[in-house]
Specification:
alpha/beta, 8-stranded mixed beta sheet, 1 helix, about 25% strand, globular, binds coenzyme A
Length: about 170
């Protein structure tokens, strides 16, 4: 279902059961799989491919040619970038879209810098700025984002435990 005030390009492909909320832009050549949910005010760049059952919450920005696997979760206002050195009027930039592998989860307002791959089942903490690839089954937090296993406090460890449980379950 596509709700009101969306701008869906005629060449975009929308899979069966995919739901697109209000004020979403889906640019030319984008391909959305089946049962995807796209929250309001998302931007899905040209040629972007989104795998089945992925979730984009409100305000997610995906630049041109982003690749998302299946069951990818993007929390509200996740921003993926593709231009490392943005300048007004530079249309020849070296575009480096993100590659978000199946079953990874990105917390609210995470920022993914150009050319980053987030591995399968990896978790990116809310507000993280991801400057390096994230290995599969790894949790990263902070700015720049680092693997959470580098964190030492008891509360970090408690959080770690909960996240790891989630990840272990998701391996089944
Ligand atoms: C700030 C920026 C220009 C730096 O580029 P750079 O000078 O080539 O820097 P590098 O990639 O060599 O990174 C240098 C260090 O800074 C860190 N770093 C880079 N950008 C960072 C950012 N935005 N926030 C926090 N840390 C950052 C890197 O992790 C690296 O540290 P490390 O080696 O200890 O891991 C670039 O990373 C950036 O943020 N560009 C803006 C992208 C954007 O928003 N585009 C607009 C939308 S498409």
């Amino acid at each position: 279902m596509i709700r009101q005030f969306c701008d869906i390009h005629g060449t975009a492909e929308i899979g069966e059961g995919t739901e697109i909320w209000n004020y979403v832009s889906v640019c030319a050549g984008a391909k959305l799989g089946t049962s995807v949910v796209v929250g309001s005010s998302c931007w899905i760049g040209k040629g972007t491919v989104i795998g089945n059952n992925s979730r984009l919450q409100t305000g997610v920005f995906l630049p041109n040619n982003s690749i998302l696997g299946e069951n990818v979760f993007c929390g509200p206002h996740v921003i993926a970038t593709d231009d490392k050195y943005p300048r007004v009027g530079n249309h020849d930039y070296n575009a480096q879209p993100p590659n978000l592998k199946s079953n990874c989860s990105l917390g609210a307002s995470a920022v993914i810098l150009p050319g980053i791959t987030v591995g399968e089942f990896a978790v990116v903490g809310a507000g993280a700025v991801v400057t390096h690839d994230v290995e599969p089954h790894t949790i990263v937090v902070g700015s720049p984002a680092i693997p959470i296993s580098a964190m030492q406090s008891p509360s970090d460890r408690e959080m770690l435990k909960r996240w790891y449980q989630t990840i272990q379950e998701s391996r089944i």
